Amino acid sequence: MGRYERNIKTLSVEENERLKDFRVCVIGCGGIGGYVIEMLGRLGIGHITAVDGDNFCESNLNRQILSSNKTMGKNKAETARDRMKDVNDLIEVTAVPEFINKDNILDIIEGHHVVIDALDNIETRLLLQDACEKAGIPLVHGAIGGWYGQVTSIFPGDRTLDVIYEDKDQKGIEKTLGNPSFTPALIASIQVSEAVKILINKKDTLRNKMLVVDLLSQDFEVINL
């Protein structure tokens, strides 16, 4: 219990013990996803599936916790797996060094208790929402751009991303606003807290609601959807 003793009182002993039995799939291992995997692993989530077909490049170094001079050119999912061997060798991390598509997504997410969206484009997010609905798996969505971020929890049948991204041809704002180091870390932490609440059946998730964060004005607002 020494490893997890600081979890206790935030989580009960029973809740903490249950963490090892959960399977969480993280789609995207870059800015948001790297932090998500780091936090899930330190908490003690028993099995994490890390999914990303991309390799690290120099422009990732400003914000992606898994990127370093030593990991340049390496696959992001495989790097996440190797990192977790050092952080918490009690958990199992499966690396899937692939981009998701309509042909592989259901096979990748099958058998997980929660899926976390750490993607960077709207089209693939909508594909992920469809797959999670078919598989009956809750999805925790997060997105960032510059000083701004958003998080919502989507249960099968909610179709929340259809409301957020009503214009399916719109482009994400991160290409225009950039992404500093602090926004992905914050949004990832909120996504992880949402995932834990879903897993241990805590109330007050962001289901049918979206937390919108403006770090420039330090404004945090929950919008009913």
Automatic annotation (TrEMBL):
This is Molybdopterin-synthase adenylyltransferase. GO terms for biological process: cyclic threonylcarbamoyladenosine biosynthetic process. GO terms for molecular function: molybdopterin-synthase adenylyltransferase activity; tRNA threonylcarbamoyladenosine dehydratase; ubiquitin-like modifier activating enzyme activity. Residues 4-224 form the THIF-type NAD/FAD binding fold domain. It comes from the Bacteria. It is an enzyme of class 2 (transferase). Its EC number is 2.7.7.80. The lineage of its organism: Bacteria, Bacillati, Bacillota, Clostridia, Eubacteriales. Keywords: Nucleotidyltransferase, Transferase. The keyword Electron transport does not apply. Coiled coil: none annotated. The gene is moeB.
